[in-house]
C-alpha cells in the first residue's frame, strides 16, 4: 500500500514537475508480460527511450546517425497504458490489466518507467463463419480452406481477423468478383470468456469476365510501338475470368519492359451491369535514348568494390520493345589502380576490373514468359597474383516457369588469357590462352518477402555447368586445330532462409548454405583439353563467405588465390535493430575450399565468428561493416588452431573488417 501511495503521489505531481523542467526517459521496462516480448510491446508505445549518450552526441553533429533525447510526458504515458491494454485485448486477453511505476532521478533529471502487466487468461477461436460468399468453383472452396490466418483453436487476434478478411476478399477478386469487399466482422465472446465466435460478412457482387482493353498510347517523345506489344504482356485474354492477381502481374510485366515510367490497368469505378469487364491500359513512356553515369559500389567476388561507369540505353531498338545497352565500368578493391600508371597492370598489389559490354534484349521470344539476351563483353580482371583478359559472347534464354521459379540457359563462348604476376605458378595449362564454350542451366526459386533485407521466406538456386562439348566437337572434325579449351562439368547449390522472431520483424534469423563441385575430364596433353578457367572456379573467404578471412585467402589448396574445385559454406546470422535505422548482427560462418570432395574432413573446416553493424539507407540496401574473427583455423599450427589458444594480440592482428552494400547474404 505504501508503494502504491508513492506512485499515486508521484503521478499527481508529475505535471507540475514537468512544467518546470524536462526529464529524459532513461529506460522503459516491462514486467508480467509472459506472452509478448518487450521489443514487441515497445512498438505499441508512443513514449520512447532516449538513445545512448554516444548516439545523442552523433545526432547533435549530423542529424543522420543516432537520435535526440526523449522526454517524459505523463499524458503520453496514460495514452500508452490504454494502447497496451488494447493491444492485449486485440490478442485475446480481454481481462488484461496494465499499470505503471515511474522512478525519478532528480540529479540526472531522468526517469525510469516500468509498465506492470497482469495478462489474465486468453481466449481461443471456437469457429469462423463466412457470410455473403456466393456459390463458386470447387477450386475456390479448396483455396478457402487452405492456410487460413484465423484457425479454430488458435488464440484470438484482431490482426488475424483483418488478415483473414483481406485473404477472402483477395480470393473473391481472383475468382471473378472484381468489386468484392468486406462488410463487417462480428466477434462474440462466450460466457466463460475462454473462446470467441467470429463471423465475417462480405459483398461479392457479380462474377465478371475480361472484356476488351483499350491501350492509351503515351505522349510523343517516347518510343513508337504497336498496340500488340502491350497486349501480348497481358497474362489474360478477353473471356477469361477476372483476376486481380493476373492484373497486377501484367502491370509488373509492362514495367519490366523498361519502356514505361507508368503502366496501369484501369477498371471502371462503378460495377458494370453486364458480366463483361472492360478497361484501359494507361501508359507514360520513358525517353528513347538515355545516357547514365553511374557510381558503382558492390561486394562482387566477396570483396568491397567501388568505382564508376557510363551506360547508354536505346529503348525499342529496331522495334518489338528490344533494349540495346552499352556499358563501361571500372571497379576497384584498392586505390593503386586510380593512378593508371604503366605498372598498374603488372604489380602484385592492385585489385580491380574493367568491363565493357554491349547487350541486346528481346523481351518476347516465343511467349511473354520467355526472353532472349545476347551480349558481347571485354573484361580485364586484375587480381594480386594474375591478370586475366576475357573476350566473351553470351546468349541467355530465361523463362518464368512458375510464379516464384525462373530458369536460365546460358551459352558462353570466350577467349581467355591469363598472365601470372607472382612467383606462384599458374595451374598447369592456364599459361596458354583458351577458347572455351560453356553451357549452363540455372533453376532459381525465390519466395523471400524483400529484395534487400528479407525477413521471411527462402531463396534456392541450382546451377549445372559444362565446358568442352563444342570445341571438342570442332577438334574431332578438324584434327589440325590447335586451340586449347577447358573440359569440365560443375554444379552449384545455394539455399538461403529467413525467419522473423517477432511480429515487427526487429529480430531476424538468416541462414545460408552453399555447396559447389567441379570436375575436369581430360587433360591438356589429351586432345588439348585444358583446366577449369579461373573465372569459373570456386573461391572462399570474404564478406559474403567465411568472414574470418579476406577474399580468396581461405582454402585447403596449394594456392587459394587460384581457386579450387570443391566448396562448402554455411552462414548463420542473428539480425536485430539497435535504434532507428541502425541495426546489428552476430554471425558464425563455417566452410572451406578443397581440390576434391575426398579431402573434406571436420578438421579441415574453418570456422569464423563476429559481429557487424547495419545502417538502413533511403535507397533500400543497407550499408554494412562486419568484424570477423577466426574461431578455428585449420591451417594454423597444431595447438594454435582455436581462438582460445591464441594470444589477444594475435586475435586482433587476424581480425578482418569487411565493408559492403546490402546484407551479407
Task: Outline the structure in words.
The chain is an alpha+beta fold and 665 residues long. The protein is globular, with a radius of gyration of 31 Å. The chain has a 16-stranded antiparallel sheet with strand order 10-11-12-13-14-15-16-17-18-20-21-23-24-25-26-27. A 3-stranded mixed sheet has the order 1-3-2. Among the domains are: 2-118, Ubiquitin-like (UB roll), CATH 3.10.20.310; 124-203, Ubiquitin-like (UB roll) (Roll), CATH 3.10.20; 209-285, Ubiquitin-like (UB roll) (Roll). Residues 1-20 and 335-344 have low confidence and may be disordered. The longest helix has 19 residues, at 2-20. It has 10 helices and 27 strands. Helix content is 16%, strand content 41%. The chain has helices spanning 2-20, 38-42, 53-61, 74-89, 138-145, 158-174, 227-231, 244-256, 469-477, 648-653, and strands at residues 24-31, 97-105, 110-118, 124-131, 181-189, 195-203, 209-216, 260-266, 276-285, 289-298, 305-315, 323-332, 352-362, 370-382, 386-400, 405-420, 434-446, 456-467, 485-486, 488-500, 507-520, 529-530, 566-579, 582-594, 606-615, 623-632, 656-661.
Amino acid at each position: 500500500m505504501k508503494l502504491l501511495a508513492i506512485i499515486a503521489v508521484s503521478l499527481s505531481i508529475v505535471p507540475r514537475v514537468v512544467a518546470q523542467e524536462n526529464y529524459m526517459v532513461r529506460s522503459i521496462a516491462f514486467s508480467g508480460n509472459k506472452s509478448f516480448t518487450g521489443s514487441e510491446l515497445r512498438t505499441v508505445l508512443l513514449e520512447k527511450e532516449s538513445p545512448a549518450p554516444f548516439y545523442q552526441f552523433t545526432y547533435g553533429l549530423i542529424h543522420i546517425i543516432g537520435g535526440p533525447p526523449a522526454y517524459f510526458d505523463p499524458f503520453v504515458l496514460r495514452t500508452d497504458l490504454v494502447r497496451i491494454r488494447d493491444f492485449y485485448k486485440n490478442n485475446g486477453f480481454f481481462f488484461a490489466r496494465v499499470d505503471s511505476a515511474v522512478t525519478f532521478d532528480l540529479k540526472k533529471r531522468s526517469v525510469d518507467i516500468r509498465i506492470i502487466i497482469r495478462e489474465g487468461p486468453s481466449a481461443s477461436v471456437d469457429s469462423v463463419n463466412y457470410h455473403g460468399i456466393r456459390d463458386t468453383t470447387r477450386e475456390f472452396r479448396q483455396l478457402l480452406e487452405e492456410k487460413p490466418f484465423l484457425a479454430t483453436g488458435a488464440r484470438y487476434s484482431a490482426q488475424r481477423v483483418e488478415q483473414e478478411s483481406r485473404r477472402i476478399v483477395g480470393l473473391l477478386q481472383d475468382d471473378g468478383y472484381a468489386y468484392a469487399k468486406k462488410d463487417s466482422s462480428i466477434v462474440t465472446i462466450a460466457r466463460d470468456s475462454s473462446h470467441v465466435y467470429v463471423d465475417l460478412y462480405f459483398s461479392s457482387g457479380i462474377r465478371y469476365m475480361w472484356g476488351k482493353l483499350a491501350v492509351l498510347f503515351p505522349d510523343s517523345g517516347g518510343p513508337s510501338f504497336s498496340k500488340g506489344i502491350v497486349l501480348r504482356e497481358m497474362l489474360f485474354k478477353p473471356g477469361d475470368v477476372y483476376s486481380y492477381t493476373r492484373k497486377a502481374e501484367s502491370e509488373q510485366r509492362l514495367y519490366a519492359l523498361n519502356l514505361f515510367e507508368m503502366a496501369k490497368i484501369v477498371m471502371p469505378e462503378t460495377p458494370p451491369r453486364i458480366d463483361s469487364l472492360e478497361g484501359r491500359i494507361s501508359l507514360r513512356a520513358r525517353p528513347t535514348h538515355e545516357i547514365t553515369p553511374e557510381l558503382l559500389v558492390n561486394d562482387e567476388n566477396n570483396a568491397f568494390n567501388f568505382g564508376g561507369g557510363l551506360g547508354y540505353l536505346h529503348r525499342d531498338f529496331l522495334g518489338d520493345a528490344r533494349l540495346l545497352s552499352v556499358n563501361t565500368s571500372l571497379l576497384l578493391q584498392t586505390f593503386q589502380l586510380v593512378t593508371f600508371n604503366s605498372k598498374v597492370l603488372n604489380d602484385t598489389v592492385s585489385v580491380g576490373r574493367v568491363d565493357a559490354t554491349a547487350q541486346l534484349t528481346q523481351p518476347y521470344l516465343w511467349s511473354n514468359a520467355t526472353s532472349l539476351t545476347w551480349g558481347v563483353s571485354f573484361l580485364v580482371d586484375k587480381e594480386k597474383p594474375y591478370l586475366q583478359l576475357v573476350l566473351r559472347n553470351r546468349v541467355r534464354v530465361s523463362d518464368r516457369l512458375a510464379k516464384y521459379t525462373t530458369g536460365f540457359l546460358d551459352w558462353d563462348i570466350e577467349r581467355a588469357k591469363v598472365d601470372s604476376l607472382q612467383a606462384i605458378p599458374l595451374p598447369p595449362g592456364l599459361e596458354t590462352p583458351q577458347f572455351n564454350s560453356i553451357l549452363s542451366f540455372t533453376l532459381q526459386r525465390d519466395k523471400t518477402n524483400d529484395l534487400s533485407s528479407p525477413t521471411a521466406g527462402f531463396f534456392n538456386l541450382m546451377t549445372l555447368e559444362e565446358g568442352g562439348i563444342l570445341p571438342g566437337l570442332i577438334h574431332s572434325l578438324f584434327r589440325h586445330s590447335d586451340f586449347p579449351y577447358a573440359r569440365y562439368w560443375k554444379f552449384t547449390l545455394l539455399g538461403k532462409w529467413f525467419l522473423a522472431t517477432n511480429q515487427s520483424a526487429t529480430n531476424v534469423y538468416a541462414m545460408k548454405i552453399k555447396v559447389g563441385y567441379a570436375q575436369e575430364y581430360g587433360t591438356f596433353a589429351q586432345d588439348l583439353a585444358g583446366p577449369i578457367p579461373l573465372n569459373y572456379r570456386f573461391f572462399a573467404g570474404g564478406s559474403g563467405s567465411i568472414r574470418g578471412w579476406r577474399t580468396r585467402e581461405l582454402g585447403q589448396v596449394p594456392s587459394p588465390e587460384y581457386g579450387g574445385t570443391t566448396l562448402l559454406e554455411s552462414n548463420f546470422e542473428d539480425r536485430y535493430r539497435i535504434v532507428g535505422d541502425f541495426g546489428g548482427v552476430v554471425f558464425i560462418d563455417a566452410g572451406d575450399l578443397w581440390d576434391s570432395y575426398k579431402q573434406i574432413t571436420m578438421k579441415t573446416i574453418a570456422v569464423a565468428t563476429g559481429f557487424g553493424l547495419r545502417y538502413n539507407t533511403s535507397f533500400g540496401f543497407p550499408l554494412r561493416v562486419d568484424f570477423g574473427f577466426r574461431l578455428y583455423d585449420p591451417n594454423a599450427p597444431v595447438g594454435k588452431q582455436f581462438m582460445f589458444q591464441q594470444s589477444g594480440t594475435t586475435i586482433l592482428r587476424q581480425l578482418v573488417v569487411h565493408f559492403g552494400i546490402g546484407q551479407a547474404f
